[in-house]
Structures are given as C-alpha cells and as structure tokens.
Amino acid sequence: xxxxxxxxxxxxxxxxxxxxxxxxxxxxxxxxxxxxxxxxxxxxxxxxxxxxxxxxxxxxxxxxxxxxxxxxxxxxxxxxxxxxxxxxxxxxxxxxxxxxxxxxxxxxxxxxxxxxxxxxxxxxxxxxxxxxxxxxxxxxxxxxxxxxxxxxxxxxxxxxxxxxxxxxxxxxxxxxxxxxx
Length: 181
Known about the structure:
alpha+beta; two-stranded antiparallel sheet; six-stranded mixed sheet; 8 strands; 29% helix
C-alpha cells in the first residue's frame, strides 16, 4: 500500500469509526447466544447447517436417519422423506422459512433459532399445499411460481399452524410420531 493510499485508508477508517454507533444497536440480542456464530454464516451454508442440526438432533434422540437417493428431500427420518428449512429470528421478531418447493418429500421441518430459544414446526405435504405452496409466493412474476415461504411470528402463531409444533419438544414429538404412509 503506498503512503498516500495508506493515509486515505486511515482517514476513511477514522470516519467509519466515528459513525459506526449510528449503525450498531446498543444491545445485540445474539451477543451471549450459543447460536451467535450461526448469524455469521452465509445463507447458502445455513441450509446445510439446518440439515446437519436436524440429522444430529434426530440421531441423538434415537430416530432412524438416512440419506435419500435423490435431492428432492434432505433426510430420511423413520422412513419419511424430510425437507428441512432453517431460519434465525429476524430483527422484526419473525422467522422466514424460504425456498419451499413442491418436491418429493413427506414432511417439512421448519427449525427456528432465536438467541436463547428454538422453535420447530413439522408440516405434512397436505397442510403445506393448503396453506403455503401455491399461497405464499417468495418471488413475484411468472418465474416466481415455484418457490414459497412461510413467515412465523413465534409469539403469535397462526391458528392453522399451531397443531404442527411451536416448541422444540412439540415439533420433535410430531417428527418422531409421524409414521410413513
């Protein structure tokens, strides 16, 4: 770095330091969270992390897990083809489970990670088609008809969603008790 660019860099760094407090909140809710590191992972890697977390969670709790032979499901759990979506809690207090598609899976596991709690919903394909797939498009226009999303406020669960989990325990019980059809 030349002297001139070093000087300009130092000046820019001082300016950025002087205004950073305008952009940083006084209290970061993730600061002492065991999940803080997850917030730093790029979105594409969060999907794979969600799959690994759910697989490990199922395995340590005695559920049979396996890898499907195709990419239409992320995991086989007790014989069910399972798609997994992970969301961290957004600043607005919601989870956004994204890129939900009508693929060849039996169950969708929506794992929500908050700074100091977790949530889980397990939805079968029939429920998804009734409330999400075809109803909550993620993208607009002609090209946006194959991906959907589910926004969930864990403090105000939509009535239709309530029977499909909420707490980690409730979601896991549904996942454990769902028998392959």
